[in-house]
Amino acid sequence: MSDDARAPLPRLLSIDDDAVQHRVLAGMVRAFQHARYECDHALSFEEGLGRLVSVRYAACLLDYQLGQRDGLALLHEARRIAPETPVIMLTGSDVPEVDIAASEAGAVDFLIKSELTPRVLERSVRYAVKLGATMAQLRTLALRDELTGLLNRREMQTLLHDEWIRTSRFLRPFAVGLVDIDRFKAVNDVHGHPVGDRVLRHVADLLQGRLRRVDRVARMGGEEFAILMPETARREAQIAMERIRAAVEAAPCVIPGTDVTIPVTVSIGLAVSLEDGDGPDALIATADKRLYAAKHGGRNRVCWEA
User: Fold this and answer.
1) Are residues 211 and 292 in the same domain?
2) How far apart are CA 216 and CA 222, in angstroms?
């Protein structure tokens, strides 16, 4: 059996409170001519949202009417919690206002149940999946740093703002570390920018690999990175940043295809919400001030006081 034959099929999610309607849709999916999918079923608004959060679906087939709630409300929630999943809205009647509302809410297509055939549904799913892949690529370009694959400065600023709102409401601390590669200009001057880029990716991989799943790391520009650590008080943040500093120092960057090995160290400035600033911008400013102190204190160190 080939690897392709053993690979799991991509999955569609049908959200419809009518089990009979789901069986009709599942039968049409099985009759597709050019692609194969598994088709899962959620019977309610809440179950549908739960599945969208926990499973990666190629596309979602969403009924407009879900008991006492309509599919537009679920569509708005789906765009928020699972923006990578394209949604096709299904309805029992051809109402132009619903079509427009579904489009404005983010549905990629709008289909009338009485007009559905396997061919019509497959064409819609094929379009939705292709559009979903294109949108995922655009989101990656918008949110990620091209060189390192880390989050970019804009996305980190958004995350910091959201985390500040949460911590202000629940009075739970989070920490921010600003990480700067020591003497990075000398690497570019001596070895050239391609080697410098390799060092940047090397450090990015080290940072990413030594953080918790809930933490976020971004390249802020040049040789500077930011680390966001939710639910983290000062002592835990100090330990985490010291662990990262030591890991970078212990892992010089080996340049493939050459005999060049670049020793790398970082300096880190640390700030903690509820203690070191009255907003996300002030928190970053404090971390930056402490990064500056770490640099002038000899480099290759973590500074949490200034």
Assistant:
1) yes
2) 18
